[in-house]
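The protein record filed here.
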Amino acid sequence: MPVPTALLDLAVDPVVHDVDLRWTMAYAAALGDHNDRYFDTTQPDAVVAHPLFPVCPEWEAIVASRSQSSTIGMTTAEILTGVHATHDITIHRLVRPGDRLTTQLQIVALTNIGPGAKATTRLVTVDADGQPVATTTQDAIYLGVPTDGVHQLDPMPPAVIAGSERTGAPSTFSLDIAAGAAHTYTECARIWNPIHTDRAVALDAGLPDIVLHGTATLAHGVTAVVNARAGGRPELVRRITGRFAAMLAMPSTITINVWPGTPAPDGTTTVPFEVLNAQGDAAVKDGLIVLGAIDG
């Protein structure tokens, strides 16, 4: 069956999470990112979460949307063809331990592209005062499954990022990914998708083996940019974008390339990056991170 137009009317209840220090520290630890900003409890008001941490509370809303998809005529097999293709997150402020976060999900676009139906999801996370924390726009592609003819584009797509060109020589980093990296990330992020931890499920889905989560791969790129271009200051991260392409097997060694940033008139700097798997294929391609002004 095609992906129905009714997907655009999908109703998912807001998801509420209380974020504690154990969760934020575990997320950074799973990435091997030991920045003191994530761990130094001698300065509790300064402790923050990794910039990509919002993917953790967002996950429950995504799971709920998959469950609701079955009520509009999509089979489990069709739902499981959906792959995370792009990620674009605006960081209004970093998550902090003690936050009560509410995440709302909406399907904002549905159209056909070559590989299948492309659905665009927007996730908005706010704090207990209703103030914005993170806004994510991400595409999923239902491989081999078309739409029923609908062609609705995102009415309010994220703004195009200026200064995205790769100029100059990149800084290059190598990182070993352990055999159990996906299992560690699953438990620490509280993001459970069996294709990343259960070999039988991964093989049934047509994968060669379990693979590392796309968000974990992206997070490694974010860490490299924070360290190489933001002076280790995660609070400078304003926006993160990238496309997921090649798979990342475990164990393996990845390569992260971080180009010099391009300053903008508003004081921000756009930093291109990519994450390559052991074969040299881009696991995260066209990566961009917008940094706020580094004021010393």
Q: What stands out?
A: The helical segments are 21-30, 55-69, 76-79, 181-189, 199-204, 214-229. DSSP finds six helices and eleven strands in the chain. The chain has a mean pLDDT of 95. The longest strand covers residues 100-113.
